[in-house]
Design goal:
By secondary structure, this protein is of the alpha+beta class. The chain is built from 19 helices and 13 strands. It folds into 3 domains: 185 residues, Orthogonal Bundle (Triger factor/SurA peptide-binding fold); 143 residues, no CATH class; 112 residues, Chitinase A, domain 3. The strands form 4 sheets. The chain has a 4-stranded antiparallel sheet with strand order 10-5-12-11, sandwiched between helices. Strands 7-6-9-8 form a 4-stranded antiparallel sheet. A 3-stranded antiparallel sheet has the order 2-1-13.
């Protein structure tokens, strides 16, 4: 198949040639990569094994999808933030299988149109081939990927969209669902706010040395310095030169480094593999980083925090990292030692403990005051007073009237300049009309929110918006249906995770 990029850049023949070369290199190495069977498996699906290298390639697609904000693809396959990459890996394989069963295969024209329509590849609302080329040559080549890989990611995004559309068409939203969605988005609410400031309560708190010593004795078993990790590592990175590589030369060099790094990680899965011996065979120097905590990475990892953080995902059972991608290449770590935290002395802990004790006592006092205010308001309102009069009597101050707002206003950030707007606007969802909320924490203390009323719905606006909301509500429903469909199809995929036995 002729590479789709040729259809994007007809006037840029030189750039086409460069990208085709890069794509050929990527294809050649990817084919070798996918055919390897020497590495451990991460599991199997549909009775077929999935190798480490195959899994790593799909996980890199997840990173690109996140970068490009392909939300349909991410919502459909990653589903949640927890275990997102793991879900994306297995759900991608399910998607490929089920798309084949359903006969859903995006055309080349579909992929071309989708890429041209992506805002990230546009300048002033029009597709810009230079922006696209720069992304391929920079962001993709750094990951050992090519324009062809991007097309495959877009192909998967379109597969998700087509299956979602198929599911959505089976059950259009009802009138009741449309009204509920309209109310939730556009109905305005009126609220009153009572503010409590933590500083007012901190000023009244007294903490003695004896208080702090007592707290230290209670907590000293849990008061430790941070755990530290010691690792050794190999670096498959571009050399530092006066004239750094650029363009296709850089892309090819990174591709070679990626292959070498992943060859190294696969070799480390062999029985009795020795880090130093494999490094010597690969012609790379083994280096050691000084022991460090999460909060204080060593100088060699200061500019690559993801590599520093990777040490804390390793264990004595699984001491070896995957190939860790950076702008200049790849790192592979091996855990040498876990240095547990040591107990803090009283002198080391006392300042922090005193501050925590003071804030805890102030918070407790503020919570008690808030509960007292709520009880007094409830009693006064029951006796016939208005909320405004009851709140002033209970709190000693006039409640603040927050501007009427809807969920749409909240999404648009209409009142972001008002103090604690986000906390106030989010909390209303759990408050009934005429009710005063529990204390809602804010940066400077807390607020009590009273829901005064929900304003009448604008029926004229509902009729005007209803037809447009059919697609929006349908999209929400389609997302839920797709995820349920994916759950059922994944359950039927004979999925088994874990290394080969």
């Amino acid at each position: 198949m002729v590479h789709l990029l040729r259809r994007f850049q007809q006037p840029l023949l030189i750039m086409i040639t460069i990208l085709v070369i890069i794509s050929f290199v990527a294809f050649y190495n990817s084919a070798r990569f996918m055919d390897r069977g020497s590495g451990d498996h991460v599991g199997s699906i549909y009775g077929m094994p999935v190798t480490v290298s195959q899994a790593q390639k799909i996980v890199r697609r997840f990173e690109v999808a996140e970068e490009l904000r392909l939300n349909d693809l991410l919502q459909g396959l990653a589903i949640t933030r927890n275990n997102a990459k793991d879900n994306f890996l297995w759900n991608t394989l399910v998607l490929w299988h089920e798309s084949g069963v359903l006969g859903i295969e995006p055309t080349e024209d579909d992929i071309v149109s989708a890429i041209k329509d992506m805002p990230v590849f546009q300048t002033r609302g029009a597709y810009d081939s230079n922006v696209y080329n720069n992304y391929v040559l920079d962001a993709l080549s750094r990951r050992g990927m090519s324009g062809g890989d991007l097309e495959d990611i877009i192909r998967d995004d379109l597969r998700v969209k087509k299956i979602r559309a198929l599911l959505e068409s089976t059950a259009p939203p009802s009138e009741a669902e449309l009204r509920e969605a309209f109310d939730g988005m556009y109905q305005k609410v009126d609220v009153s706010v009572i503010r409590l400031k933590i500083d007012d309560f901190l000023a009244a708190v007294k903490v003695t040395d004896d208080d702090v010593k007592k707290l230290y004795e209670e907590r000293k078993k849990a008061l430790n310095t941070d755990e530290a990790r010691k690792v050794k590592y190999v670096a498959f990175i571009l050399p530092t030169t006066d004239k750094p590589l650029a363009g296709p030369a850089r892309a090819e060099a990174l591709q070679n480094l990626q292959k070498a790094a992943e060859d190294f990680t696969i070799a480390m899965t062999e029985k009795d593999a020795k880090f130093d011996a494999i490094a010597a065979k690969a012609g790379v120097k083994v280096q050691e980083a000084p022991a460090y905590s999460r909060a204080n990475p060593p100088a060699e990892f200061k500019e690559i925090p993801a590599v520093a953080a990777a040490a804390f995902t390793l264990s004595k059972i699984q001491p070896d990292s995957d190939a860790l991608s950076t702008d200049r290449g790849y790192y592979v770590l091996q855990l040498e030692d876990i240095i547990p935290g040591r107990p803090l002395t009283f002198e080391e802990a006392k300042v922090d403990l005193a501050d925590k004790l003071k804030h805890q006592r102030a918070q407790d006092a503020m919570n008690l005051k808030a509960a007292e205010i709520r009880d007094k308001i409830a009693a006064e309102v029951k006796a016939g007073k208005s909320f405004a009069d009851a709140a002033q009597a209970a709190s000693g101050g006039k409640p603040e009237a927050f501007p009427p707002f809807s969920a749409e206003d909240m999404q648009m950030g209409k009142f972001d300049e008002k103090p604690d707007a986000a906390a106030i606007m989010h909390a209303v969802a759990s408050v009934d009309v005429g009710e005063t909320s529990m204390l809602i924490p804010t940066g400077k203390g807390g607020v009590l929110i009273h829901l005064d009323q929900r304003e009448p719905i604008d029926e004229v606006k509902f009729k005007a918006e209803k037809s447009g909301m059919v697609a929006e509500v349908g999209q929400i429903r389609a997302t839920v249906l797709f995820q349920e469909w994916m759950k059922l199809r994944r359950a039927a995929a004979q999925l088994k995770t874990g290394p080969r036995g």
